[in-house]
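Quick illustration, no need to memorize.
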Amino acid sequence: MTTETFKIAYDECKQMLARQPKLFLYGLLLISCLVWIAIRTLGRPKKHSISRPNSPDPEKPTSNRRTTIKAPYRTPGEWHPVDFTRPTAAPYPNWDVHTAEPIPYRPFRHGPYHITMGLRTMQWDEWIELDNQYPRFHEDKKRRIEGRGDKCCRTAHEAYDGAVELLEELCSYLPQRYPTLFRSTPTGIHNLLTEETFDISTRPLPEDPMTTASRLIQDDLAIMFEKPDGQYYLLAGAILLAGFWRLSDKFGMPLSEIHTSGDVPGFKTKLEKGMMNFFRRLQPGQPVLRNNYFIQVDDNLAWSHSIGSEDPSSSSDGADDGTTSKQVQGWSSAEKNKAIEHHYFRSERQSLRRLPRSGGVVFTIRTYFEPITKVAEEVGVPGRLASAVRSWGDDVARYKGRERYGEVLLEYLDGKHREQVEMGLVGEDGQEEEGKYPF
C-alpha cells in the first residue's frame, strides 16, 4: 500500500467515524471477534480418544470398512503356518472365582430387527470370560462328558493337530489371564480350584484334546477346517451346554449345511456369501466377537427339554400301522404359554479366531443363562426386550419359538415397562442412549 493510498483510506475512516460512530465501532468489534475465534480454532490441539469404540449391534448392519479383511490368495484347503503369537494376556484385575459376577450381556435393541453377522473386534485379553458360575459349569460339563462321551466331544483325525493347538493356546492363556485359578506346569496346566492337573505333553494324550479343553473353561468349543471345495467343516468340537443343538447332528457338516439344517433365518439370502468371504479372509491376528440371544421355557442349561428329549427313542407307541415313530423335537412340541417363572433369557457370547499353525477357525461359545424375572428388573430392559421380540420377522419368530411363549412373555415385559415409566426410570417410549450395546 502506497503512502497516498493509506492517507485516502485514513481520511475515509475519519469521515465514517464522524458520520456513524456506532456503526463503525460495531464493525471493529465484529472483526475483532472473528479474528479471536480464528486464532482459538487454529491453535487448539487435536484430541485423541483413548477409550474403546462402542461395539456395533449384531442385529444392525455393520460397516464394510470394519468387516473387510484383506488376505493373500491361497488355494482352498491349503494352509501354511503363519508366524503369529498371541499377545501375552494381562491378569484380570481383582478377579476371584467366587465373587466375579457374570457380565450382563443384553444383545438386543428396539426394533427393527436386522439379520447380520454382527461382528466386532475382540481384544486379546478378553478371549475367554470366566466368573462365579465356573463351578456349576465345570460340574455340568464333567457329568455330561462322563455320561455322553463322543456325542458331545469329538475330533476328526485330520483335525487332531488343530485341536491340540487350541488346547496349547488355552494352557498358555489361562494362567496369564486368571492366575488365581490356573498355574502353568512343566507339562501343562493345574486348576487351583478343582486340583486337576492336565498333562498336554505326552503322546498320545490321555483323552481327546477337545474334551480336555472343555474342562478348563465355561465355553463350548468348535473348530472349522477348510477343505479343497472351499467350504469350512466342523471337524472338532466340545458342545456340552448348547441348549438347542447337538454335536452328533452337525459333526462333519460344512458351515452352510449346519445353518440350513438348523433353519437359520436369512442364511441363504443375507448371510451365506458374507460369511464364506469372512472365513476365507480371517487372519490369526484379527479375532472377532458376536452375541445372540434366545428365550427358553425351562431351566436346563445343557439341553432345553421343553423342545423334546435330547435322545429321542424310537417306539411304536401310538402308531396304528405298526411302524416306529420318533419323538418330535422342536418348538412345536413345547408347552404353550407356560408361566413367566419358566421363562429364561439365554445369551451367547461367541469369539472367532484363526489358529496360526493349523489354520482352523475356532469358535468359543459362552452361554449366559438367567430368569426373565431377574433380567426384567433392570432399568430399560423390559421395554427394550419387548420391542425387540415384537420386531422379529415371521422367519425369526419361528426360529426362536415366539408362538409358544410370546403372549405370556410380552404381557409380563409390558407390565414391568409400565412400572418403570410410572417410577420415572424410563421415558414412555423406553428409548435409551445409543452406544451401550451389547449390554
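The two ends are 66 Å apart (CA to CA).
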